[in-house]
What we know:
Elements: H1 3-16, H2 28-41, E1 44-46, E2 49-51, E3 55-60, H3 62-68, H4 72-90, E4 99-104, E5 113-118, H5 122-136, E6 174-175, H6 180-183, E7 228-233, E8 239-243, E9 246-250, E10 258-259, E11 270-274, E12 279-283, E13 290-292, E14 295-297, E15 299-301, E16 307-310, E17 313-319
Parallel strand pairs: 3-4, 9-10
Antiparallel strand pairs: 1-2, 3-5, 5-6, 7-8, 7-17, 9-11, 11-12, 12-15, 13-14, 13-16, 16-17
Helix pairs in contact: 1-4, 2-4
Amino acid sequence: MSFFSDFEDRIADLFETAPQGYVEPFSFKKLAKRAAKEMENETYEIDDIDTAPALYTVLVSSADDALMRPLYASITEEVATFVAVQAHKKGYVFVGKPLVRFMVDPSLKSGRFAVFAENIDASTLDRLRREEKEFLAGNAGVGGAAAQSGVIANPAPSSSADLIPLDDLFTDRIFDDPSMEASDELQPLSAADLQPVPAIPQTQRRSDPVQAPVAQPAPAHEPAPEPAALLIDRRTGRTFRASAPSAIIGRERSQADVMLSDPNVSRRHAELRFDGSSWRVIDLRSTNGTLVNDVDIDECVLRSGDLITVGLTNLEFREG
């Protein structure tokens, strides 16, 4: 029996032997092939050594995440082993044993998935492995792949000294249905949709006597609008709105109010918080940290024009 067939059988056994009697939500054969393809795309030569990416992130729907949550520890181990064996056949090395993580993408439908691989250094890989172990043990605040632990990509190792042979042991997404993402997008309104509705003339009676004007009640007092702030991506010009009392900056769509597609940003990276008089930014123990005007901070009061750096993204803060 080939290793590929053996992999499929082991995955099938995981679902069949689960107490709940789960059924695989999608083809793990396809998932394994995508992971192997991502490995090829992200393998680089460092000091004449072919170095394969060690971090593999699998995006799944919320429904499939809930189904697979109790099996993640076993599933991730099987996929990591498959990737390691494929790398060994080609003579590739890793900075450490490959790590596979599942995350929720609410835009995905059940049965769909995406895979991407990232090069990270050995220390970051070890830290992420510890975080994932705690996450799978149930220490995260939110269950399943929608938990608060961060996913991050640090720069690839700079020399072969950081590498270990296999025996010693978020690239662009690849969707299993390329047409899915485009078909799910909202279509813009046409010109016909934007035509103004003609006003209906007021009905008048010809013979009615003049009526005394009816007193109108005084307008109700409108509450003051909630304080708000803007974050402007310096590279793309995209603007995000943050409303009081707080807004989360991160990569996980189900967790973040300001969602950034930056693999160096943690799922819950930082929080903007309004305390009644001023805005402040608080780092949420992210792996890469948060900077304000190029200074690493844990918590900092913000002023309009300050530059917040999360991952590789620079956000200009504007109050009001």
